[in-house]
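Why do we bother with holo predictions? Because pocket geometry can differ from the apo form. Keep that in mind while you read this record for xylulose-1,5-bisphosphate.
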Amino acid sequence: MAEIDALIFDVDGTLADTERDGHRVAFNRAFADAGLDWDWGVDLYGELLGVTGGKERIKHYLREFNPGFEAPDDLDAFVADLHAAKTEHYKALMNEGRVPLRPGVERLLREARAVGVPMAIATTTTMDNVTSLLENTLGSDAIDWFAEIGAGDIVPRKKPAPDIYEWVLQRMGLGGDRVVAFEDSGHGVQSAADAGIERIVVTPNDYTLGQDFSRAALVVDQLGERDAPPRTPDGTVLSGPVDLELLRRL
Ligand code: XBP
Ligand code: MG
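The structure, written out:
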């Protein structure tokens, strides 16, 4: 059995299904506020998710899907303003409690916390978004449950680059062989694996099903509960939820 010195969680798509009804809606509201007629539908947004990071995603959209748009001379400032407005809308959506945590997430976080296994976050999203999701789902002190939070622009390259996982591992003084990472996407798996993390658990969602999870140790539909255990992609139902005992056996 391999000891576990920390659990490191991705946020979007892993802790909660934030993309379709959170980020996507917030982007569209920010575009409308700015008088732009851009509308990121559910399917288009799935394609745009190929690029991580909201500011990077807006630029990608302009390049690939809206090349006729006459962008202002200072594109970076224009995108940064739009993105700041999007973050405010995202926080408002979280305050409305629109997006719950995925099944089994709260159970596993509480189990790890109860026995003192350190937890951290490694995400591409903006820090404010992390705080807002955690506070609205787990309570006002939830941010303190995490020893390190690696978020947004604190590293130069976003996922699938390994930077954010390397940052978290370095801050925790841990090697990749000592931790378990939780992801929902192929980009996330690549980021964690390239940072040297050997044990990666993937819980895909509608946007990420079918991506490359070949470097993951376990792929299940959800972390699960005792009375509703997870399923693997071939339909096998596990005997219990993803808990610390199962993670030690990976
Ligand atoms: C999350 C993302 C983020 C969010 C938007 O990826 O790609 O860009 O969609 O967040 P991951 P910001 O789950 O792999 O970390 O708009 O705050 O960038
Ligand atoms: Mg994710």
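DSSP finds nine helices and six strands in the chain.
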